[in-house]
Amino acid sequence: MYISIQHFLEKGIERLKEVEKVFLTNPTDMASFVLGITDEVHKFGLEMIKETLEFMDEEIPKDSKRKESWYVERSDYKCLTTSLGDVRFRKTYYQNKTTWEYEYLLDRMLEMDSHERLTEDAEAKMLQEVVEAPYRKAGEEISLQSSVSKQTVKNKIHRLEFPKYNVERDKKVVDYLYIDADEDHVHLQFGETKGDLEVDGNNRKNNCVLSKIVYVYEGIEKESPESKRHKLIEPHYFCGVYDGSDNQALWNEVYAYLDATYDLEKVKKIYLNADGGAWIKSGKNRIAGITYVLDEFHLNKYILRATSHMLDSQGDAAKAIKETIKDGTKADFEVLVDEILEYADTEACTKRILETKEYILSNWMAAKIRLRDRETVIGSSTECHVSHVLSSRMSSRPMGWSRTGCDKMSHLRAYYMNKGDMLELVRSQPKVLAKAAGAESDYEVLSMAKIKASERNENYDLGKYYDAMQATISDNISKQFWFKKKVRSIY
Q1: How would you classify the pairing of strands 176-187 and 208-217?
Q2: What pTM value is reported for the model?
Q3: Which residues of 329-358 are buried (b: 16+ CB within 10 A; e: fewer)?
Q4: Is 176:269 a contact under the CB 8 Å cutoff?
Q5: Cα of 94 vs its chain's centroid, Å
Q6: Which of 109, 212, 339, 456 gives 20 to 30 Å between its CA and that of 439?
Q7: DSSP state, 10?
Q8: Closest CA to 238 of 194, 200, 286
Q9: Are the C-beta atoms of residues 225 and 203 closer than 8 Å to each other?
Q10: Considering the domain boundaries, does residue 244 fall inside one?
């Protein structure tokens, strides 16, 4: 690392001065000035990473414990893609003396698979891009100078595993909680393998999958004191493809979050805003005391469908329906619908009125609570959240997904909306690293005399920079001392 620093002091600073000189002669070209500085600093960063990795690799074969268990086979070159760009460095290949297996011990120290080509920072940047952009663009933006294929991005997305919610704070006490739920209809290219989509009698593929969204919040508030716009208070999102029995897993996740975050015994009421879907209503079976409320958007939509043919009287008819739902009985509502049916002039109009009747009767109490409890029930925002959280990335433009890709991207969108750290997500992924066979886990504590002797023996590698590095010799000693201890942990 010190060679790259010294080289930068000798050459890099001179080039930076030259870039500055050019700018001073032409102050209007600020872009070239900034890009010139960026390029020099960027080159220095890549060289520093390369030198540090090679220093680590060179220290491993010197270790006495390594000599007991591993032969040095050969040196190879590996290219890692970082968020700065590609770093090509040398590393050593070893063979175990007992099992005859081969391994790059540096990979074990870095806790990287030998076939891995992306560093964690590059992968985190890829996730930050892919959550809002196509696979291809995310691959192109993975680092300042490098790119990966869209297939690589897809493979990374499909292997993602998302951590369970873990709260480390006291449970909050609130009077009311709100849960909104809906789904987005996403088009599939295939389910699990290409060509596996079912085709009906009209040669139409069953290529739709539901990406479900559930979000929990404490209420709404104005974005600013004088704003007409509102925002949710402490929202938390859950998204994914949950089919059949998997639907229970979704509501288990929601309940786990509620139980970990809030003192549920002190919550007066939990409202569930939804359009009446069966998978949404099943949430009442998992979360005790939940009150189902019909989504205001869907309630108004069906009322409009039933009264749109009444022209100038449409407003009065819609008002009468709402008042009957709020204060009347199902029998009163059926009488009112029969009166409205008398004004239906087409078969399609009759069909719309009967569909509205069936929908409201099947969600009667949910519709009544929506219109009656105005002080505590909040208007649902599911439609705009489906659009913002899911559709904007997955279905608003022509694109096709696999079932796994749809599920993983839905989870990633929820993680992003919950302000999750992409680097932490990458670091949380399970790593399968086999322990080196026949090796020991303890390490030798080296004396300072041995460390100083080793330092003197290795100084010849520093070439012409040795004299300039005399001031940093103590740093070299501490670096090697720390590293020799770390080396032992990989066996």
Answers
A1: antiparallel
A2: 0.80
A3: eeeebeebbeebeeebeeeebeebbeebbe
A4: yes
A5: 37
A6: 456
A7: I
A8: 286
A9: no
A10: no
- Measured in degrees and rounded to the nearest 5, phi and psi for residue 317 equal -65, -40
Which token pair is 406? 């749809």
467: pLDDT strictly greater than 70 = no
DSSP 180: E
Q: Of 12, 32, 62, which residue is a domain's last?
A: 62
Quick one: CA dihedral 186, 192, 194, 196, positive or negative?
negative
Structure tokens at 366: 């949910």
Residue that terminates a domain, selected from 47, 62, 77: 62
Helices (H), 342-381: 347-362, 364-372
Q: In whole angstroms, give the CA distance from residue 491 to residue 489.
A: 6
Output the CA–CA distances (angstroms, integers) from residue 119 to 81, 115, 123, 324, 487, in the order listed: 6, 12, 6, 63, 20
Q: Over the chain, what is the mean pLDDT?
A: 83
Helix (H) or strand (E) holding 423: helix 422-427
Query: Are the C-beta atoms of 436 and 105 separated by less than 8 Å?
Result: yes
Cβ–Cβ < 8 Å for 150, 451: no
Residue 404 lies in a domain: no
Q: How far is CA 368 from CA 179, 295, 372, 377, in A?
A: 18, 11, 6, 11
- Place 237 in a pLDDT band, splitting at 50, 70 and 90: very high
Collapsing DSSP to helix, strand or coil, 280 comes out as helix
Q: Kindly list the distances between the CA atom of residue 443 and the CA atoms of 60, 217, 446, in Å, as whole numbers in the listed order.
A: 13, 52, 9
- For residue 436, the model assigns a pLDDT of 47
DSSP string, 95-125: EETTT--EE-HHHHHHT--TT--B-HHHHHH
Q: What is the tally of structural domains in the chain? A: 2
Complete DSSP assignment for 325-349: HHHS-HHHHHHHHHHHHTT--SHHH
**Could you tell me where the beta strands, DSSP code E, fall in 236-357?**
236-240, 269-274, 290-294
pLDDT (tens digit per residue) in 325-355: 999 999 999 999 898 888 888 899 999 999 9
Q: What is the DSSP letter of 377?
A: P
DSSP 8-state assignment for residue 164? P
Q: What are phi and psi of 346, to 5 degrees?
A: -140, 160
Q: Which residue matches tokens 């322990």?
A: 435
Torsion of the alpha carbons at 312, 316, 321 and 322, rounded to the nearest 10: 120
Q: In terms of C-beta density within 10 A (0-12 exposed, 13-18 middle, 19 or more buried), how is residue 298 classed?
A: buried
**H/E element holding 208?**
strand 208-217
| Residue 365 confidence (pLDDT) | 92
In a domain, 299, yes or no: no
Q: Which domain holds residue 32?
A: 1-62
Long-range contacts for 151-159 (Cβ within 8 Å, ≥24 apart)? Answer: 152/118, 153/126, 154/405, 156/118, 156/123, 156/126, 156/127, 157/130, 157/405, 157/408, 157/409, 157/412, 158/402, 158/404, 158/405, 158/408, 159/429
